[in-house]
Design the sequence.
């Protein structure tokens, strides 16, 4: 906690009543304006503690109106009521009077953000802008002057538009950001720097207008509101201008880039009429007003929210106390308010874990008030020291924050209550004393014999004598730190430590070299003093002798610790062997580590609370399990204080906070998440974590560690419910030392908590205490032998219990079993043994913690191992039902309903039936549990039943009413529950048989129908009984009644509806009776007794029934039965059914024979059924034979595809191909040949394809050539090529293609290996001759264009060749000659050739060989008529099928 020292300003006697005050923003200088109606006014400057600055006094016969400090330089601008403006410089006192620009009272003075501009304004509306240099000196006359003709009220500069942050760009460049680097180079665009300060500003007038003045001092009207403007606020984050008028009307405007303003919100602020209003606002948009009420009002302009903060009488405020003024400190996040009773209330912004700043009023925490008397009318924070100035109408007081001083040593604790008061607690006697000093206490040091306090200027020593404090010495001293050992006081001054007597006499000097620096830190433990200097050196001195002796040489920590800025705290252990150090880094932030200097080994180690691990040390037992969990508790933290035990040199305690809370020296005191960490520190084993536990609520800060207790200071105004303090049993006493008197009642400010290992052993003797410490140490390092040796002589059960508690922290279950055995705790031992089935070690340790009453540890362990089912059960067993419900809902949903049920049972046991009902409903057990719970409260139960409208509950309630003989009501609720059985039962009981019948018939409910049928049977109404037995599907009962009463017609229908047994009974009944034998056969058949049905059918000649039975026969039926049925069907000429039965009986040959003889079509399904794959039924050879027979039959029937399939299954691919060829399915023929890849099949397929129109389908042509090639039949291929050549000659007269085809034929025939050599030679010679003739004819046709005569001669010689035709058709040769003579105009010769051709081919139409044009020419020239229809049709070249006949 912080206390505030208040200093009254040392105002000269001539000063008047203070009217205004203002702090410099950075320097500790306060300006105070005083005024008097008669003598005028004056302005004075004061320093940090109220010291008067003589050189800076300014006095005028006029009243001062406005004070404004330069934002950087110590220059104060003063405005007076006569229009004069003066610049006063501190500390020289130089005064600069601005040239006369105003003739009326100054109403506003405003500096720009860097102080280069000063704006002045007066009552008449005159506004002047002045330029000021970097030293704060005025430069010439005003830059511009504007007249607004109305009193000016407010002025606010608009911040400059943000430019590029050079520092941010530099960091990005160094880290490798190329785009940032380019902005510094010439490669990118030039770096755009924002202006150093914003020179544009807004000024408001008393008539409600706001004017905008730009950087060039040009003015324009921006906006207008109703009433005088009281305050202008600029929200930089949103670029919004807020305007508040005298009537507290708040308007917000968005500012456009062209200078316009658009109103987007307007609201009336609440206030008390007729009172002065004090308005402040924060940078994050929080508007705070004080209007002379008992509350202050806050408006969040960003979040559009508002709330009030009020005073609390329990902290010392009075009822009806009014708040006059407010001030807010951004750096400390403190809101201060001055009251009418001379108190200053302060609210601290407290951020809860996971919260956001500024969310709700709950984050503002009211502190204990500071009293300064009078009526506080003005407050202001200022300077870099965050000082608060308060004007109480008579004088001004300066308040400076000071962290509360506290110290503990040798069982004496001293805690500061107020700036001048201490609470002293003597734990050895239980006495609580008060110490009232006459000075502001900045530090305190307590020992068993004395209490020493100092203010930075004076040191006072009080001697403790019983319950009396006596002043034994007081002397002036500027030391800001003091340490005490015995009768000696240790103070510091530059480069040395002074050892003094209580009266201030210097006994000895401990000097430090210039390199070692000035001592700034002192700490004493037992007989050792450790000194820390401002150059990060430490020295340890031995105080056990008369004079202090150096225990070790000076150690420069800057050489060992990187990034060391300054020492924050140094502490020494009881043996002087270890020094612990806290430091701040170069950037001023606290370090996350606590460092340890080993004096004997001259080494520095550390424990890093950021990662929760030490820098060195041996591996601890179960490190992977135990430290992983503890590391999560310690990681991300920072140490804020540390203390060694006063007698145990190995034991150190640290107070740690989350990293987000360590930035301020006092903010950690408000943090709720504070952990107290205990460490063992030794040379052999390094740093070992011993314990970590959260600081209890209600406690302020850690004071000391003195086994078996931690000592804490308490928060003022808060009681500690679990306080374990010796002072609780003692009556507080007070003393009145010579320096002053204490209050009537001294609060308990110190509380102590037992260490984990000493709970229950707080009053044990020293031997037991030492044994427990040794046990804890050896357990921590994992040395079980030494741990047991240290406690082998201890017999106390309490000690063994404490050791078992240690085992929970160290997770040593084997040791815990020994401890439980020595405790004689059989129940805990049994529970621990049963917990061994749990796979997680943490779950087993948690069970031990539960048995020892360590419930918080058990909870953490279950959470650590994520055993939320056990955690849920633990919460239930410990009565923490809300946590149990939350755990079940978020993590253990499999047990959610069980948890709801158990909670409902608990609530029922507690008598909270309403809430129990809700949770029974959530657990879905309310249908049974709620009626049971409310059965004694029938009225409540009836209300619940009607409210729930649940069928099960209706039924329960109806049964209850029935038991109470309220049949009508029971019927109504049975009907609501739709319980038709109960309705019928009750109606039958009441004799309403007709109504019961209607219900059973309408609903069809089987149970109701059965009950009604039993009722009818009991009353011998057989017909109705059978009907309702049928409705109930109780067919056996209905059949029984039908048999008994001879209802044969109904019996058949019922039997068919019932099961096989009932069908059998009915069939036997019909058979025995000898009538309706067809029904008996049908029932036997339906019941599955086919053989019995057939026998009966054959015996009684029931052929219609036999037909039905045969339809259900299959291959699983009896073969003999199948054969008998097939014979029956053959006899009656039903061959299809007979074949199916023969196949089912596996008589395939007979079935096939029947198909052949009776010409029955074999379907694919039938064929598949005939093919048996099971070798037991048919051998492979027999199966193939059967398949071939089936295929033969299919061939005879013309089912070629099925025949192909069966031939293929039989392996006879040749017959399969023949079947396919008969089918004429070209696609399947080609596919089958390609798949089988047999020579014969290829040849057969090719031969078939030749029968098709291959001339017009080139694909078939290619396939034929391919198949002959694959079938290795060159002679057949040669024949095909010959056929191709002949087609080309006959159809197209294309002798070139014919020549190619014959050439290919010759090649193929040459490859043939025909045994009949002579015949092949003849074919080859014939082919060669034909090729030669065709070549000559082709050559002649090609030569014609070049040498027509030679071509004609060749053609005529060709006609003389023997056996010219069919190689070259004679008609083509003569046609060539006729065409030639026609073209030459020799028509006589042409006609002669034509007649010659006609004689050679008398049976043919020779004009077929002559072109149409030549025929027309002949007809015209010779006068011989030609038949038009005989002319040959020319074939277009593009229609010819060109194929590559070459076979590779």
Sequence:
């Amino acid at each position: 906690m912080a206390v505030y020292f208040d200093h009254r300003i040392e105002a000269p006697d001539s000063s008047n009543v203070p009217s205004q005050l203002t702090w410099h923003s950075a320097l500790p200088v306060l300006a105070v304006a005083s005024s008097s109606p008669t003598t005028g006014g004056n302005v004075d400057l004061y320093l940090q503690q109220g010291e008067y600055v003589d050189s800076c006094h300014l006095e005028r016969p006029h009243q001062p109106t406005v004070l404004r400090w330069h934002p950087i330089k110590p220059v104060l601008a003063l405005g007076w009521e006569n229009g004069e403006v003066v610049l006063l410089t501190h500390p020289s006192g130089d005064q600069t009077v601005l040239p006369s620009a105003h003739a009326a009272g100054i109403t506003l003075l405003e500096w720009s953000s860097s102080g280069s501009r000063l704006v002045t304004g007066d009552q008449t509306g005159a506004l002047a802008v002045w330029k000021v240099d970097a030293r704060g000196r005025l430069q010439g006359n005003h830059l511009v002057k504007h007249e607004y003709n109305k009193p000016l009220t407010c002025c606010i500069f608009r911040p400059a538009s943000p430019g590029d942050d050079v520092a941010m760009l530099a960091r990005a460049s160094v880290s490798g950001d190329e785009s940032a680097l380019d902005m510094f180079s010439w490669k990118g665009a030039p770096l755009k720097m924002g202006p150093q300060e914003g020179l544009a500003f807004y000024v408001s007038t008393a008539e409600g207008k706001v004017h905008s003045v730009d950087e060039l001092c040009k003015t324009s009207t921006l906006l207008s509101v109703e009433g005088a403007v009281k305050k202008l606020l600029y929200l930089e984050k949103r670029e919004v201008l807020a305007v508040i008028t005298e009537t507290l009307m708040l308007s917000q405007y968005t500012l456009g880039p062209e200078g316009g303003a658009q109103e987007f919100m307007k609201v009336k602020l609440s206030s008390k009429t007729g009172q002065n209003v004090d308005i402040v606002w924060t940078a994050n948009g929080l508007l705070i007003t004080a209007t002379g009420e008992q509350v202050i009002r806050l408006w969040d302009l960003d979040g559009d929210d508002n709330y009030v903060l009020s005073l609390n009488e329990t902290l010392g405020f009075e009822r009806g106390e009014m708040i006059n003024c407010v001030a807010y400190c951004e750096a400390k996040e403190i809101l201060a308010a001055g009251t009418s009773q001379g108190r200053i209330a302060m609210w601290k912004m407290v951020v809860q874990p996971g919260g956001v700043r500024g969310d709700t009023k709950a984050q503002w925490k009211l502190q204990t008030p500071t009293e300064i008397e009078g009526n506080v009318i003005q407050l202001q924070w200022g300077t870099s020291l965050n000082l608060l100035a308060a004007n109480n109408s008579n004088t001004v007081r300066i308040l400076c924050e000071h962290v509360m001083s506290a110290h503990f040593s040798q069982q004496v604790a001293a805690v500061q209550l107020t700036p001048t008061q201490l609470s002293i607690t003597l734990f050895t006697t239980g006495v609580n004393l008060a110490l009232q000093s006459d000075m502001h206490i900045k530090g305190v040091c307590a020992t068993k014999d004395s209490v020493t306090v100092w203010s930075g200027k004076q040191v006072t020593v009080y001697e403790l004598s019983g319950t009396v404090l006596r002043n034994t010495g007081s002397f002036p001293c500027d030391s800001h730190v003091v340490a005490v050992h015995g009768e000696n006081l240790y103070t510091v001054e530059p480069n040395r430590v002074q050892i003094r007597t209580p009266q201030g006499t210097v006994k000895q000097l401990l000097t430090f070299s210039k390199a070692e620096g000035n001592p700034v830190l002192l700490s004493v433990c037992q007989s050792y003093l450790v000194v820390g200097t401002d150059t990060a050196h430490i020295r340890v001195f031995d105080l056990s002798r008369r004079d202090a002796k150096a225990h070790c040489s000076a150690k420069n920590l800057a050489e060992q610790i990187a990034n060391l800025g300054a020492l924050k705290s140094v502490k020494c252990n009881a043996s002087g062997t270890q020094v612990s150090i806290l430091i701040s880094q170069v950037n001023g932030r606290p370090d996350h580590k606590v460092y340890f200097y080993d004096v004997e080994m001259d080494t520095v180690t550390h424990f890093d609370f950021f990662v929760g691990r030490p820098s060195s040390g041996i591996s601890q037992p179960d490190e992977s399990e135990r430290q992983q969990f503890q590391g999560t508790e310690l990681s991300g933290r920072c140490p804020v204080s540390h203390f060694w035990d006063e007698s145990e040199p190995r034991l150190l305690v640290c107070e740690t906070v989350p990293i987000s809370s360590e930035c301020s020296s006092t903010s950690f005191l408000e943090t709720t998440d504070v952990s107290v960490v205990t460490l063992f520190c030794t040379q052999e084993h390094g740093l070992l974590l011993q314990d970590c536990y959260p600081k209890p609520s209600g406690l302020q800060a850690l004071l000391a560690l003195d086994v078996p207790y931690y000592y804490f200071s308490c928060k003022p105004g808060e009681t500690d419910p679990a306080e374990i303090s010796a002072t609780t049993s003692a009556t507080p006493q007070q003393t009145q030392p010579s320096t002053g008197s204490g209050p009537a009642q001294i609060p308990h400010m110190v509380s102590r908590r037992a260490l984990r290992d000493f709970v229950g052993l707080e009053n044990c003797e020293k031997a037991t205490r030492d044994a427990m410490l040794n046990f804890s140490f050896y357990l921590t390092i994992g040395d079980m032998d030494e741990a047991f040796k240290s406690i082998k002589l201890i017999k106390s059960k309490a000690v063994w219990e404490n050791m078992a508690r240690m085992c929970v922290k160290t997770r040593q279950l084997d040791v815990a079993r020994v401890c439980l055995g020595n405790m004689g705790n059989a129940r805990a031992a049994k529970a621990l043994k049963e917990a061994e089935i749990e796979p997680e070690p943490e779950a087993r340790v948690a069970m031990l913690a539960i048995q020892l009453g360590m419930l918080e540890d058990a909870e953490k362990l279950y959470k650590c191992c994520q055993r939320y089912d056990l955690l849920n059960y633990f919460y239930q067993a410990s009565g923490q039902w809300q946590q149990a419900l939350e755990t079940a809902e978020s993590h253990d949903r499999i047990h959610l309903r069980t948890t709801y049920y158990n909670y409902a049972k608990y609530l029922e046991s507690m008598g909270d039936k309403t809430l129990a009902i809700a949770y029974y409903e959530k657990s879905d057990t309310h249908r049974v549990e709620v009626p049971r719970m409310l059965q004694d409260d029938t009225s409540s139960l009836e209300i619940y039943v009607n409210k729930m409208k649940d069928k099960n509950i209706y039924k329960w309630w109806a049964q209850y009413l029935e038991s109470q003989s309220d049949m009508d009501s029971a019927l109504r609720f049975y009907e609501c529950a739709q319980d038709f059985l109960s309705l019928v039962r009750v109606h039958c009981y009441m004799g309403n048989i007709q109504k019961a019948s209607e219900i059973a018939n309408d609903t069809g409910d089987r149970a109701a129908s059965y009950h009604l049928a039993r009722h009818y049977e009991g009353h011998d109404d057989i017909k109705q009984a059978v009907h309702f037995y049928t409705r109930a599907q109780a067919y056996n009962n209905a059949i029984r009644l039908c048999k008994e009463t001879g209802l044969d017609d109904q019996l058949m229908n019922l039997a068919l509806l019932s099961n096989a047994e009932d069908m059998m009974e009915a069939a036997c009944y019909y058979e025995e009776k000898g009538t309706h034998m067809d029904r008996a056969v049908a029932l036997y058949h339906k019941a599955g007794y086919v053989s019995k049905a057939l026998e009966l059918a054959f015996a009684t000649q029931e052929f219609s029934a036999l037909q039905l039975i045969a339809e259900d026969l299959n291959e699983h039926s009896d073969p003999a039965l199948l054969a008998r049925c097939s014979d029956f069907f053959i006899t009656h000429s039903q061959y299809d059914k007979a074949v199916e039965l023969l196949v089912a009986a596996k008589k395939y040959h007979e079935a096939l024979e029947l198909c052949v003889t009776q010409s029955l079509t074999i379907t694919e399904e039938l064929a598949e059924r005939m093919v048996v794959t099971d070798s037991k039924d048919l051998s492979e050879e027999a199966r193939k034979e059967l398949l071939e027979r089936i295929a033969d039959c299919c061939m005879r029937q013309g089912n070629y595809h099925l025949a192909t399939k069966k031939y293929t299954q039989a392996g006879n691919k040749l017959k399969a191909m023949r079947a396919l060829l008969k089918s004429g399915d070209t696609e399947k023929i080609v596919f089958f040949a390609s798949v089988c890849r047999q020579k014969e099949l290829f040849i057969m397929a090719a031969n078939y394809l030749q029968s098709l129109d291959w001339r017009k389908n080139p694909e078939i042509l290619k396939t034929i050539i391919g198949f002959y090639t694959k079938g290795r039949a060159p002679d057949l291929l040669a024949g095909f090529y010959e056929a191709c050549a002949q087609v080309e000659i006959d159809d197209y007269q294309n002798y070139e293609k014919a020549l190619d085809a014959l050439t290919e034929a010759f090649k193929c025939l040459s490859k043939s290996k025909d045994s009949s050599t002579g015949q092949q030679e003849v074919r080859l010679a014939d082919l060669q001759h034909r090729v030669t003739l065709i070549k000559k004819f082709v050559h002649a046709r090609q030569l014609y264009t070049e040498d027509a005569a030679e071509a004609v001669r060749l053609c005529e010689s060709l006609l003389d060749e023997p056996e010219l035709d069919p190689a070259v058709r004679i008609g083509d040769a003569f046609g060539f000659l006729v065409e030639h003579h026609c073209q030459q105009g020799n028509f006589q010769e042409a006609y002669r050739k034509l007649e010659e051709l006609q004689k050679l081919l008398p049976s043919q139409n020779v004009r077929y060989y002559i072109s149409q044009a030549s025929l027309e020419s002949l007809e015209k020239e010779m006068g011989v008529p030609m038949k038009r229809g005989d002319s040959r049709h020319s074939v277009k070249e593009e229609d010819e099928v060109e194929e590559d006949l070459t076979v590779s």
In short: The chain has a mean pLDDT of 79. The first strand starts at residue 2 and ends at 8.
